[in-house]
Batch of 3 targets.
Target 1
Amino acid sequence: MHADHAPIFRVRTPLLALTLVLSAGAASAQWMWVDAQGHKVFSDTPPPATVADKDVLKRPGAPAVSPGTETAEATENQAAASKPAPDVPPGRDDQLEARKKQAEAAEAAKRRAEQEQVAKARAENCERAKRAKATLASGVRIATTNAKGEREIMDDQARATEGKRLDQIVASDCGPMPAAR
């Protein structure tokens, strides 16, 4: 090394040491708990709600606790620190609840709109079927168009078949709405 570079190394060495110390502190800000299978889990996020407080071995900002070496006081302090305010149930998110309620209300409104649309279509079908049945019962000659596009007059057998079909429509659409499945 040259003599003119020595002051740079004198400044860099303490900065490097300070950086290492600070990064070690940040790395230790982790959670540690024992999962359901008995394995230690390390994470920078809190454990899931299913993990009991006694299985949380380390919290950020708290010293690590080895299993079996906890004191009663340390256990009480950790339990008190981890409990939420008494007026808020654990795991409750007000925004999530509000979004759920909005989604449920939107779904209910959608179902009501669909039911109203079905009821309207049923009422229209019922009215058409009743008018067609009245026309059929009047005895007036009725012409239909066959598959070839030719006009045909309904005979007694075709009237009877059409009457049965109209009776089925009246029975299904003019009565009370069937229960939803």
Note: Strands lie at 31-34, 40-43, 56-58, 143-145, 151-153.
Target 2
Amino acid sequence: MLKAPHRKVSLVLMAIAVYYLYLAFQLPSFMNSIIDSDTLPKVLGVLLIVLSVILFFMPDTETPEQKEKRNIPKNDVFMLIGTFLMILVYIFFLEILGFILVSIIFIFLCSLFLGYKKHATNAIVAVLFPVTLYLIFTQLLGISLPSGILPI
């Protein structure tokens, strides 16, 4: 019954969803709002459980071509692990250095790591995208993002 890989994945996703829902129910609620701060996390947790159940009961007919697609080349595994490590470094330094600075460094280095060769375009995007997002969030939406060491 658990031979098919999608069934194993669905069980892992269900366990993650249950833990996520447990954490979502720990969020504080506010009296004055119709849609509370915990509404979206709860909806996403339930949605993940529903989709995991659907994945579990999907038929396990797999062609040899689909089986071959599941094999990930070693170079791609290296890229996935490297990107994951860069994301962890990004999360670690987000509060310390601030959203803009860490995002610029992350976008530029991650693009280089993944093989993007146009350095000028990469630098322009790496600067404009985080600055634009920062301005949208702070000025238009009134949401504060970590400023870090920059005097913003």
Note: The helical segments are 5-24, 39-56, 64-70, 74-97, 99-113, 119-140.
Target 3
Amino acid sequence: MTIHRMDNVLIVVEDLDAVISFFVELGMELEGKGPIEGAWVEAVIGISDVRQEVAMLRTPDGNGRIELAMFHTPKAIRPEPKDAPANTLGIRRVMFAVDDIDAVVARLRSHGAELVGEVARYEDIYRLCYVRGPEGIVVGLAEQLS
């Protein structure tokens, strides 16, 4: 049997509302937000006494989702270093296709985002960049050129 699709990516955060605002400004749509707790979630994630608030956001085409989780108990653990560079092991970024990379970067800056490097051109195919948003979350942006 094969997989059907990638359902979502989980990002654990401390300030759920700030991160929701960042992804909504990027163009994602909030599907829902609410508390999660109980034996079923403890069994799935392997942590006892879990109380968390989660939010699910989807891309405008409905095919991609990001789940945000803010843990009340137990408290989340911060990885080191806080703003890990691109060559750190693990998931480093989520990439989004956009129509106008400059406009998106400008909008995200109003939510405290900063370019990690710079907007760069890959041949005559893409303009690309990484943006670090709230809580050090890195998103990649890709603008396909005509």
Note: The chain has three helices and nine strands.
